[in-house]
């Protein structure tokens, strides 16, 4: 099945992306691609440049150089709106929530639902938000509280619901389960499998090896802003990945692991 | 399973309008002030004085509506007092040049909006902090107003110019036998009606429209708003333009009331407007504030100034007291933010 996936056109191709901050080389000529219906894990130590690379794809940050193609077409991502037009939705590591507003207001921030007269349609935003949030967390209450008063897990659920509500084709998840308990984490894992089966391409940034091996079809490892390795998940094991993350190289005498072809 | 629980106890208003506790304490403060002043000066509780307070408050209140929007975005507008004067000067000069009162006043409001627009552009596009940008505009607008008039007042603007500030709806006047008119019912002053209309409009825009939601979003978390596709620059420019236009409108009311354009009128009015907003629960950190709260705040400032005047407190002592009130209000705001 994976092979048939690989023959289709890539959803995203990122080519030699470079991003520097003054003297800091956050991303140094990284290339990556993503196919429909696959999950690509983006791994690396803290500060490796994972978030920068993903923020460039989501239009939140401008690359110094490099090219991004969506469905084969070169695109210029000037703003998050541009990225959304291409069906790219992002769960930011920082969650990007407005603390004083409630869950529905956050879920629909920038894309508020309106009535016929152009007024905010609070009723519909609340009912839609309720459905979207309960899907991820059936016990989600206090929808009307400012999100500052919610738990870290609830806040993360809002950020996830916001990304999937608008029917992304390409989903970027920057450590989506960092603040979640075991049951919510399992829920997100289910969700990722479901979205993947719907043909959505997912970039998943995670530090959790268990999640990575369970969910990802491929992984790419970043080290000091460089892409130091991209593999199909069955070609590598945990130690290989840890070695890449820490040292930036594979263990000595490494050969692709067994698994399938 | 679609949302039955929240349906049951749906609150009409859920945006942070400043805690209701805060608003309650502001109302209590207002009542205490009124009671205290009615003891210090017997004339305080008269109908005429009530009208005076209403008129004074309408100017502060108009400024406070715009100020509240700006403060909710996390900004500040120090230029409203000067914009008020410049708007008045433009209206006065164009009337002198032969323009009828109504279009001249429209031009005055437009002048205010233009100044506010420039504020917004400087803040959003040039990335100058609101404090510095509007401080600059404070000097620029005042300078233009003084330069255009040679610092001299413009008087003899005709009766029509005084209608907005001195007229009233439903005023009943009876001619007495001795030939003097007797006011049976003083009516509702136009400035008060204008303030009410603008406050309702401001509330509607902030609470019911997308622009209001974006104003709250930007003030609450600018980066999140940007990442969520809110046009942050546009939202800020809108808020400062609204503040400028309302300052222009306040200028029309004030100058019309004096039936004279004073280019040095409105100095430090921005502080009254900021104080009104903060007393009413707006947070200088952004993301919190309400029109209703700011209106209570405006009345507190109006009553305070009027009561102190009636009690014969000198202008200097008034400055000291208002200064203390402003610091106290901001201090309360800070304590509130720590919780
Ligand atoms: N806005 C910025 N200004 C300056 N430097 C930045 C900025 N954003 C990121 N960096 C730098 O770029 C490098 C890569 O950061 P990035 O956030 O992409 O790391 P990361 O791989 O996501 O790390 P983590 O696992 O901790 O999230 C870091 O050295 C960081 O300090
Ligand atoms: Mg990161």
Describe the structure.
The complex is a heterodimer of chains A (261) and B (339). Chain A has 261 residues and is α/β, with parallel strands linked by helices. Chain A has a domain at 4-96 and 168-247: P-loop containing nucleotide triphosphate hydrolases (Rossmann fold). Chain A has nine helices and ten strands. Chain A has helices at 2-7, 50-57, 80-85, 103-107, 122-136, 152-165, 182-197, 209-215, 238-247; strands spanning 12-21, 24-34, 39-44, 65-70, 73-75, 88-91, 170-174, 201-205, 218-223, 226-232. In chain A, strands 6-7-8-3-9-10 form a six-stranded mixed sheet, with helices on both faces. In chain A, strands 2-1-4-5 form a four-stranded antiparallel sheet, covered by helices on one side. In chain A, β1 (12-21) and β2 (24-34) form a beta hairpin. In chain A, α5 (122-136) packs across α6 (152-165). The radius of gyration of chain A is 19 Å and the shape is globular. With 339 residues, chain B is mainly alpha-helical. Chain B has a single domain (20-338), classed as ABC transporter involved in vitamin B12 uptake, BtuC (Orthogonal Bundle). Chain B is 70% helix and 4% strand. Chain B has helices at 5-8, 20-40, 47-72, 80-96, 101-124, 130-149, 159-166, 190-208, 210-220, 222-227, 232-258, 269-279, 291-310, 315-338, and strands at 168-169, 172-175, 181-185, 188-189. In chain B, the strands form two sheets. Chain B has a two-stranded antiparallel ribbon. Chain B has a two-stranded antiparallel ribbon with strand order 2-3. The radius of gyration of chain B is 21 Å and the shape is globular. Chains A and B meet through α3 and α5 of A and α9 and α10 of B. The complex binds adenosine-5'-triphosphate and magnesium ion (MG). Adenosine-5'-triphosphate binds next to β2 and α2 of chain A.
